[in-house]
Amino acid sequence: MGYNVAVVGATGNVGRAMLEILAERQFPADEVTALASRRSMGTEISYGDKTVKAKALEHFDFSDVDICLMSAGGSVSKEWSPKIAAQGAVVIDNSSAWRYDPDVPLVVPEVNADAVDGFRKKGIIANPNCSTAQLVVALKPLHDRATIKRVVVATYQSVSGAGKDAMDELFSQTKSVFTLDEMEVKKFPKRIAFNLIPHIDVFMEDGYTKEEWKMMAETKKILDPKIKLTATCVRVPVFVSHSEAVNIEFEKPITADEARSILSSAPGCLVIDKHEPGGYVTPYEATGEDATYISRIREDATVENGLALWCVSDNLRKGAALNAVQIAECMLKRKLLTAKKKAA
User: Fold this and answer.
1) What CATH superfamily is the domain 131-158+196-313?
2) Which of 130, 233, 269, 311 is catalytic?
3) Strands (DSSP E) along 84-204, which ranges?
4) Has 130 been annotated as catalytic?
5) Which residue has the higher pLDDT, 217 or 37?
6) What DSSP letter does each residue of 283-343 carry, written as one string?
7) 148-165, pLDDT tens digit by residue?
8) What is the pLDDT of residue 306?
9) Which one from 68, 143, 233, 242 is the annotated catalytic residue?
10) pTM over 0.85
């Protein structure tokens, strides 16, 4: 028997990617339902070679649903995830609403798959922030080998991380530059076309932004609470895929060659690291791919046991939709979920 899967927020960037990935990976679903707000009801969305129509979330009965992939924002998740879980569905949530709840596992399957067992407390599993997901995939195998003490990361995050309106804004502003039209700034605090904005999410009292704080808190919860991490998160005029420049200090010695070898055989990682022009991965090449690409691995001689590297990943896939589907697959592999028997 296959599973009954619901995707909430199915008309958004990540929701559409969830449906695409469920079909691509041939997830054993007998039924897949696309759910959205009332204003998006009836919107047609691709699911493999089929088309599904979005239904309204507020009128939907979840009693037959086994797995709910939630990508409708924090406020919707806060209200609906407990209700859906109470009807017996496991909620895999992509928002920040449940990530820091001690009773909700925060999971990246390549890093801490064992944590999925904790879903029973609330019936909810959280997906990490997109910038955190790719980072911990790269850090985990290195941490296992040489124990990470401290990480300094600068992110170069695509506009798709801020939603479809942000992508539209980059497109329209870029067009305005060439047509000499008036440029509208709505989604971002400053123009994004041909510019960089060192500000993602709200500012906190200590001067960090919420996005930077998320990376610190989530890395500790997923990988190791002893790791110290500082981040600077920057929005860049790229449509899809986040890039990160990562500096790592270890407790034990590790060479660039060792790191290259370890990462080359690590789950979810793909090393492309030639010391020549073009011998690295950019956001353009990573878009539409599942891997976390790692390049520019080198030793940092300014600290003891230091490495620097560059990692790139499609934020809509590994940073969100793919990770959610992988969590569902992980639950099935561990036999943590039994499909509900359908009424006769």
Assistant:
1) Dihydrodipicolinate Reductase; domain 2 (3.30.360.10)
2) 130
3) 90-93, 124-126, 148-157
4) yes
5) 217
6) HHHHTT--SEEEEEEEEETTSTTEEEEEEEE-TTIIIIIHHHHHHHHHHHHTT---PPPPP
7) 999 999 999 999 999 999
8) 98
9) 242
10) yes
